Amino acid sequence: AQVLGNDVAVNIGGASGNFELNVFRPMVIHNYLQSIRLLADGMQGFNEHCAVGIEPNRDRITQLLNESLMLVTALNTHIGYDKAAEIAKKAHKEGLTLKAAALKLGYLTEAQF
Hints:
By secondary structure, the chain is mainly alpha-helical. It folds into two domains: 2-51; 58-105, Orthogonal Bundle (Ribonucleotide Reductase Protein R1, domain 1), CATH 1.10.40.30. It contains six helices and no strands. The radius of gyration is 25 Å and the shape is elongated.
C-alpha cells in the first residue's frame, strides 16, 4: 500500500511542477527511493521464505503446454484462420488437444502437426 501511495504522490508532484522548476522534486525523489527500498526488501523476503527450494513439475508443465489452445495461432499461417479456429473450437468443446482435434478434422497429419 505504501508503494502505491508513493506512486500517487510522485505522479501528482511531477504534474504540479512548472517547466523545470518543480518544488516537489525532493518529495518525488524521497518517495521513489523509499519505494525502491520497500520493494527490494519485499523481494528478498519473498526469495528467502517462498521461492527458495521451488522445483518445477515438468510433467504438469508439459501437459499444460500440450493442452493449451493458444498454440493454435501457429497453425494460422499453415492452414488459415478459419480452419485453425475450427480446430480450437472443437478442441475446447470436446476437451481434446489441438493435435487430436486437427487429426480428427483431417486438416493435418501427425507429421505436419
